[in-house]
Amino acid sequence: MEQPCRTEHTVSVGADMVPGMGTEVVRYKYRLRPDALAERALIEEWHRCRFLWNEAVHQQKTGRKPNFTKLGTMLTETRARSSWLREGSQVAQQQMLRTYAQALDASFTVKGRGRPRYKARKKALPSLEYTRRGFRIRDEQLVPKGVTMPVVWSRDLPSEPSSVRITRDSLGYWWASFVVTRERQLIPAVEEDSRVGIDWGVTQTATATDEQFDLPHAEYRRRCSAELAKSQKRMARRRRGKGQAPSKGYQQARRQVAKVHKKAARQNRHDGRAWATRVVDEHQLLAVEDFKPKFLAKSHMARKAADAAVATMKRELVERGRRAGRKVVLVRPAYTTMTCSGCFARAEQPLGLGERIFRCWACGHTACRDRNAAGVILAVAERGHTGVDDVGHWGPPPSGGGSGAV
Ligand SMILES: [Zn+2]
Question: Cα of 361 to ligand 1 centre, how many Å?
Answer without folding.
Answer: 7
